[in-house]
UniProtKB/TrEMBL annotation:
Tree of life domain: Bacteria
Pfam name, any one: Glyco_trans_1_4
Stated name of the protein: Glycosyltransferase
SUPFAM superfamilies found in the cross-reference section: UDP-Glycosyltransferase/glycogen phosphorylase
Native source organism of the sequence: Geobacter benzoatilyticus
Length: 401
């Protein structure tokens, strides 16, 4: 397969650089060959009176007030521009929704014209961008569905459901990251294609070197049971607390920002929070883990989750224990998948007792079969097929492929 080349691309997704999301990994593969405008948006949740939401609101407003609506040039990859249109929360209010549409369209049309970018390929990971289909003169509008947003906590579910149905109907191509999402989002109007997550296996395939461990990871004695990623509402805090109580001699270490209330596990002596670390440094921190865990709640939301961290754990060669998710079952030969706290604890006991070099290499090789480059090449193939079917302006002018 060939990488998509010579394109103008507009992306609606999580703010660039906030989290190493699947969309950012995909776009990084495309950046050397294409020009990209990344749109930082307000997301889907209406803010509440919580510390996290207040802090996040000030961050967004600060971005609007600064003279530049993008990070400094030297921290952005080549070919990438980041814009932050002024947007208001509470899309359920019709006048707010109309304002947001006009603001986004005005900002992007000006930037596209300034950059000489026409017929853009639009990629969106958010249902709330349903109003922008057809507004940007796009060659193709892609809905890259990475979660079952209609089951997300703290969102207006009726509104998100309505928006997603509109987006599914009007967009040109639907890609999903899990088989369960393909079942849930199926539509008679158009086929839905699976585009599962990849991994930067070379970045994560490192050996533990005690002398190279970051200072924050050197203090832990005994086995370290680790988790990295956002500490979000779908974590099973009751499970985590039970595990920590059952094995007080183990250190349970969490790396990443908290975007929900983590008070249920805050004061447990052998649970430790390192906080957010730069993605480039994450493998060095996680190399101290003796096992990686994915302690998600089992519910309608997580049934369709494809945990991005799974392949990263495997690339590190460590044992992995996860609660049950259909997408994780694809890796049942190298991952312990459990349904109860007792099973989780037993699986960790076995993982620490029976790990060896053969199993480590098996995990690494399993992850290596799923590179982000291969995902990006598959993405390009699906885009070109959809453009041919649509007869898009880009396809008709015979653009670079």
């Amino acid at each position: 397969m060939k990488m998509l080349k010579g394109r103008n691309i507009v992306v609606f997704s999580d703010d660039w650089g906030r989290h190493p999301s699947s969309c950012q990994h995909l776009v990084k593969q495309l950046l050397p060959f294409n020009r990209v405008i990344w749109v930082n948006t307000i997301g889907m949740r209406s803010p509440r009176f919580s510390l996290y939401d207040v802090k996040r609101s000030f961050e967004v407003i600060g971005g609007w007030l600064r003279k530049k609506q993008e990070p400094e040039v030297d921290v952005l990859p080549v070919n990438l521009k980041v814009v932050g249109p002024i947007m208001l929360p509470y899309n359920n209010i019709s006048i707010v929704r109309r304002f947001n549409r006009q603001s986004v369209r005005h900002t992007l049309m000006r930037r596209l014209a300034a950059e000489g970018m026409t017929n853009p390929l639009v990629i969106s990971t958010f249902p709330c961008t349903c109003d922008y289909v057809g507004d940007l003169g796009e060659s193709l509008y892609v809905y890259y569905c990475v979660d079952d947003f209609v089951n997300w906590p703290d969102v207006n579910l009726d509104l998100i459901n309505t928006m997603e149905k509109k987006l599914l109907y009007n967009c040109d191509l639907v890609l999903v990251t899990a088989e369960e999402l393909r079942k849930i989002k199926r539509s008679p109007e158009k086929p839905i294609h699976l585009l599962a997550h990849g991994v930067d296996s070379d970045r994560f395939n490192i050996r533990r070197d005690p002398d190279a461990l970051p200072e924050a990871m050197r203090k832990f004695q005994g086995p370290v049971i680790g988790f990295f990623g956002a500490l979000s509402a779908w974590l099973d805090f009751e499970l985590i607390a039970a595990l920590a109580a059952a094995r007080p001699e183990w250190s349970f270490v969490f790396i990443g920002p908290a975007d929900t209330d983590i008070s249920p596990i805050m004061n447990i002596p052998n649970i430790h929070f390192v906080g957010k670390v730069p993605y480039e440094q994450l493998p060095a921190y996680a190399a101290r883990f003796n096992a990686g865990i994915i302690p998600f709640q089992v519910n309608e939301l997580t049934r369709s989750v494809n945990p991005l961290k799974l392949l990263e754990y495997l690339s590190l060669g460590m044992p992995v224990v996860s609660t049950y998710m259909p997408e994780v079952m694809k890796y049942a030969d190298v991952v312990s998948i459990v349904r109860t706290s007792d099973e989780f604890l037993a699986a960790l006991d076995v993982a620490l007792a029976d790990d060896d070099e053969r199993k480590r290499q098996q995990r690494i090789e399993k992850a290596r079969d799923n590179s982000w480059q291969a995902v990006a090449e598959r993405f390009g193939q699906l885009v070109q097929q959809a453009e041919q079917q649509k007869g898009s302006p880009y396809e008709r002018t015979g653009g670079v492929s």
